[in-house]
Amino acid sequence: MKNKILTILCVLFGLMMINSGLNKLFNYMPMPEMSEEMMQIMGAFATIKWIFPLVAVVEIIGGLLIAIPRTRALGAIVILPVMTGIFIHHLVLDPATLGIAVILLGINIWAILDNYKKYLVLIKH
Predict the structure, then answer these.
(1) pLDDT for 45-90, tens place per residue?
(2) At what angle do helices 116-123 and 98-114 cross, to 10 degrees?
(3) How many Cβ atoms are within 10 Å of 106's Cβ, its own excluded?
(4) How far, CA to CA in Å, does 100 sit from each of 79, 87, 93, 96, 111?
(5) CA dihedral of 107, 9, 60, 86, whole degrees rounded to 10
(6) How far is Cα 100 from Cα 42, in angstroms, rounded to an integer?
(7) pTM above 0.85, yes or no
């Protein structure tokens, strides 16, 4: 039962990451109203021309990998830096929307913990 719940959550998580990545590339969803501080931050990111495409590609690849049970361990590690950035962003700049970031980070960490044996091979001598 635990594996089925994790699979469902990882598929939903993966779809959200894929959608977010595609939106960064194709801008098909409107941006919510932003504070002045957020507009400055987004402007700063926009000056670094490669950052949004890079994050978008990582979100798409990580989303695809985490949604597929066989590649979930790799996907969870690939998407972790992006999720950490999302969590810290909401924690520092937009605490009102922190809930969804906590849930998504929790799913990501659960997927990592569920696959910890696959990572041990990387650190054993």
Answers:
(1) 889 999 999 999 999 999 999 999 999 999 999 999 999 999 999 9
(2) 70
(3) 14
(4) 16, 9, 14, 10, 17
(5) -30
(6) 20
(7) yes
